[in-house]
Design brief:
0% strand, 4 helices
Amino acid sequence: MGAKSSKPSYRDQIEEEISRRMMIQREVQMSVNIAKARDTIQIFGSAYLTFVTGITIAKLAGKTVPPIAGVPVIIGGLMLGNIFDLAYGNKLARVSKEAEYIMEYERSRLVPMRQAPVSRFYTQEEKEAMFDIATAAGCVWPSSLFSRLFVPAVAEKDSSEK
């Protein structure tokens, strides 16, 4: 008589569908990022391998190789390793863990400016933690020397007009 229906409510069904779609969208975005990294490795890796092979052959042939040629070898190797880590390593998992940490312990960093339509979902404490300690980029040196000069001044309203 007082038995509850085991069928989920429409609200629960809609939330479930939205969650599924968000999950699919997330998976598509992640797989596209991994695919981009693999494509970059194919292009950048080939160019890097050609460059390093050319330097090695020149060195083995007894030709002088300028010492500055070692800079792209080192920097290119670091960049290639970073991209390889994203494409085949666990970089995505490490980045996700860091994002979880930021969302849990540094949520105030994610607060949008007050004009954003979603800013109403943040508490006043979260807004104050981010914006009360921040300085506008145009007020920080060296931008402060010139950036505000190109913006016309807005007349300040005094408190009696409010």
